[in-house]
Amino acid sequence: MGISFTVLSSGSTGNATVVRNEDTTLLIDAGLSAKRIDELLKERDLSGEELDGILVTHEHSDHVKGLGAMARKYNLPIYANEKTWSAISNAVGQIADDNRRILETGATREFESLRVESFGISHDAAEPVGYSFYDGSEKLSVATDLGYVSDKVKQAISDADVLVLEANHDVEMLRMGRYPWNIKRRILSDIGHLSNEMAGAILSELLTGRTKRTYLAHLSRDHNMMELAKMTVRGAMEDRGCFYKDSEFRLCDTYYDRPTPWDKVSEP
């Protein structure tokens, strides 16, 4: 079977992704209400009973809003590092001791045949992380909420067959937008969010021939549009001498209001 995934929802209003293989089904973040997550799971012919656990990237509400409710409703273990656990304790409510699991930054955990590696990222949270998933030779990496992409992050997500990468905003749309300057400055900072241009620059370094698809994720509804994001990312790649054919590499959409189709990492 290999690795399959669907991005249930992506953006500032809520984030959740499902990654599974023949043995294990994991939810990455639960940033919407439990009711809404259940609805999105149903759209992809899944139910909460089929989940084996929840991985948390960081404590911001658009990543943990439904975390406690999902864990209690389906008796699910939650995996997060110590600092993230401290930051989410009040937000998630009562969680059974057996379901409080520690997955420290940089650690690897095996869920039967699905291996998960955590890696640190730069964001204004207690100890934010991204994740890479392995099944045999297959690799899927998920990296959003990045102020910038460090060499360690590049190493962690390099050679992924499929990558879910943040392209949060168009810089000029953000600068001209309605947000107060202190929020704009935070988003543009090294602990904020990755712009379209920066996402393209990173992909131009990472695209070695193995990565077949990149899903542009966590787009701002106020300061970005998917077609603009894809155009800017591709332009930034081409400006750096990285040209590709659509048959060799594709930029894929994510949505805030509906899930992406199931994607098998092994597919060309």
UniProtKB/TrEMBL annotation:
Role noted for this protein: Counteracts the endogenous Pycsar antiviral defense system. Phosphodiesterase that enables metal-dependent hydrolysis of host cyclic nucleotide Pycsar defense signals such as cCMP and cUMP.
Annotated Metallo-beta-lactamase domain residues: 13-191
Organism from which the protein derives: Paenibacillus ottowii
Catalytic activity: 3',5'-cyclic CMP + H2O = CMP + H(+); 3',5'-cyclic UMP + H2O = UMP + H(+)
PANTHER family for this protein: EXODEOXYRIBONUCLEASE WALJ, METALLO-HYDROLASE YYCJ-RELATED
InterPro entries xrefs: Metallo-B-lactamas, RibonucZ/Hydroxyglut_hydro, WalJ/YycJ-like
Protein name in the entry: MBL fold metallo-hydrolase
Domain of life: Bacteria
